[in-house]
Write a structure and sequence with these properties.
Its main location: nucleus. The protein is mostly beta strands and 381 residues long. 9% of the residues lie in helices and 40% in strands.
Length: 381
């Protein structure tokens, strides 16, 4: 299993609780889980790297546990309880220095966990109905939260008493009616203090905490359906967003205009991520496909069917076409083992069902009737 995991450059979490790894270079997919104990309580809702070397993967499940998966060994090495299922699913998961762990649930409770402690060392309340928590790629102690009727907030984990920045609601519309807000995802813009968000009302907003203005410095709209996720490409000045109807678009952050759209999706987009160094974006969602598009010519580069509804994905920082240092002679199986096959293989045989006799077709029923008619005719003659 270690050889397989080293090949994978894309990791995905599914509703069935299976961690999936995909090798783009070899066009192979692998399942990493104990298929004999699958349940919806193990549904994967969050993924993140556990260390800068990307040798460990942190997997957040619906039941409040965070599992550590070793990409070198190809197995789960640790599991710890980091939340209560009654507080909702994980909406954010991140690693801190010193083997510390950062979690956030739908209830809005953000916690910092140490490896040697079963209780959180830091805890803050980000408000109710939190949809996403993101960690700053520059300062690991800075995080952003937001949700339904819960505007964007930026927190400093070293000073958790009060948020560093709290966004102000949008101005009333032309009828002087309050405009609702629903932050679905956000991202820190590199080399600046700005944060971009997408909302459930098909809006894209950019905030600048360094300015005295707490309302968005840029407002844009895309489509007519709720936006669910976003990601920033390596090129900068652009943002890629996806919505509930399988539409993905690139927006210019300087003018707020839609530059291009990516096609080929058939279901709602639950997660997308741009590669940190290559001009590609990976997406997954309800249609059970992993798709990788080029951001330069908008072509679909790779498409992999994974047989489960997918919640989240994580890209490795290395080249996607890189085989992970494995050679052809390492005996990696060329066959993609799907979870349904593994489940059937591990089930006990209760007993062979008796085969029901096949019903005779109309032709078979007509043949004996014809023979009986011929016999009657001969007897009359």
């Amino acid at each position: 299993m270690g050889d397989r995991s080293r090949l994978c450059s894309v990791w995905l979490g599914s509703e069935t609780g299976i961690l999936k790894g995909v090798s783009v270079s070899r066009k192979q997919a692998f399942n990493f889980c104990n298929t004999s104990h699958l349940s919806r309580d193990q549904e994967v809702r969050a993924l993140c790297w556990g260390d800068p070397a990307e040798s460990e993967l942190l997997v957040g499940s619906v039941d409040g546990t965070v599992k550590t998966f070793s990409t070198e060994k190809g197995a789960f090495t640790e599991s710890r309880r980091c939340g209560d299922p009654a507080e909702g699913c994980f909406t954010g998961l991140a690693a801190l220095s010193g083997s510390a762990l950062l979690t956030c649930g739908e209830s809005g409770t953000v916690r910092v966990w140490r490896e040697d402690s079963s209780e959180p060392v830091t805890e803050l309340d980000a408000g109710k109905n939190v949809c996403r928590m993101r960690q700053s790629p520059v300062d690991q102690h800075k995080v952003a939260t937001g949700g339904k009727e819960n505007g964007l907030k930026i927190w400093d984990l070293e000073r958790p008493e009060k948020s560093v920045f709290t966004a102000k609601n949008l101005r009333d519309d032309w009828l002087d009616l309050r405009r609702p807000h629903w932050v679905r995802d956000m991202a820190f813009i590199p080399d600046s203090d700005k944060v971009v968000t997408c909302t459930g009302y098909h809006q894209v907003h950019m905030f600048d905490p360094s300015s005295p203005q707490r309302r968005p410095v840029l407002e844009a709209e895309y489509g007519e359906y709720p936006l669910t996720t976003l990601s920033l490409p390596a090129a900068g000045n652009m943002v890629v967003v996806g919505n509930t109807h399988g539409q993905i678009a690139m927006l210019d952050l300087r003018k707020g205009l839609v530059r291009s759209c990516l096609k080929g999706l058939a279901g709602g987009v639950r997660w997308l991520q741009c590669h940190p160094s290559q001009p590609v974006v990976a997406s997954c969602g309800l249609d059970r496909f992993l798709r990788i598009h080029s951001l330069e010519d908008r072509k679909l580069l790779h498409k992999v069917y994974l047989k489960s509804r997918l919640n989240c994905l994580l890209l490795a920082s290395r080249d996607l076409e890189d085989g992970g240092g494995a050679t052809e002679g390492e005996g990696v199986s060329q066959e993609v083992k799907e979870e349904e096959d593994e489940v059937w293989d591990t089930m006990e045989q209760v007993g062979e069902a008796e085969e029901k006799p096949k019903r005779k077709t109309t032709e078979e029923e007509e043949e004996p009737q014809k023979k009986s008619k011929k016999k009657r005719k001969k007897g009359q003659d």
